[in-house]
Amino acid sequence: MFYHDYLKKIKSCPFCKAKKRMFIDNESAYLTYSKAPYHSHHLLVIPKRHVVSFFNLSAQEDKDIAALVKIGAQILKKLKYDSFSILVREGPDSDKSIKHLHYHLIPNIRIGDVDAHGIPRKILTASEIKSLSAKIISLASKIK
Ligand SMILES: [Zn+2]
Fold first, then answer.
1. Percent over 90 (pLDDT), the chain
2. How far is the CA of 12 from the centre of ligand 1 (A)?
3. How far, in Å, CA of 13 to CA of 116, rounded?
4. Distance 7 CA to ligand 1 centre (A)
5. How far is ligand 1, taken at its centre, from the CA of residue 77, in Å?
6. For a 10 Å CB count at each end of the chain, is N or C smaller?
């Protein structure tokens, strides 16, 4: 079955009722596999509570997710992967098909040489770096 057909078939959140899929868990999160993997060892870390945005995680959930991401990463290392990516999709245009927040751990995936618009990536100019830095540092100073 293709993933797009699976998505049409599901009637409730698959991550809220995934107890049988847990490899390891802690108080507020669990480590599992991806049912529609990009790679044969594509792992997921999922909060137990149905939460859509990582901005809404509690401090305990942040801590528990980070602990399981590290365990998942160690498992990938034991599987002899030197390279893997940790990916979280956030926001309505992020292409997140299951709305329940989840962290992907994907071995040997190349994000690629193209940018988010499919255009070959460019090196920032000195003025672009200066402008970007000023904006990000300014925003960061306003975040508590
Ligand atoms: Zn859910």
1. 58
2. 8
3. 28
4. 14
5. 29
6. C
Question: Within 10 A of 17 (CB to CB), how many other CB atoms are there?
Answer: 9
pLDDT, residue 27, reads: 96
* Count of domains for the chain: 1
Mean pLDDT of the 44-64 span? 96
Q: How far is the CA of 61 from the centre of ligand 1 (A)?
A: 15
What length does the chain have?
144
Q: Which residue has the tokens 């988010």?
A: 116
DSSP 59-71: HHHHHHHHHHHHH
116 has a pLDDT exceeding 70: no
Ligand 1 centre to CA of 124 (Å) is 39
CATH number for the domain spanning 97: value is: 3.30.428.10
The continuous run of DSSP H or E covering 9 comes out as: helix 3-9
Question: What's the pLDDT at 4?
Answer: 85
The range of the structural domain enclosing residue 7 comes to: 3-112
Ligand 1 centroid to Cα of residue 67, in Å, is 20
Q: Look at residue 38 in the predicted model and tell me its pLDDT.
A: 86
Q: Is residue 121 part of a domain?
A: no
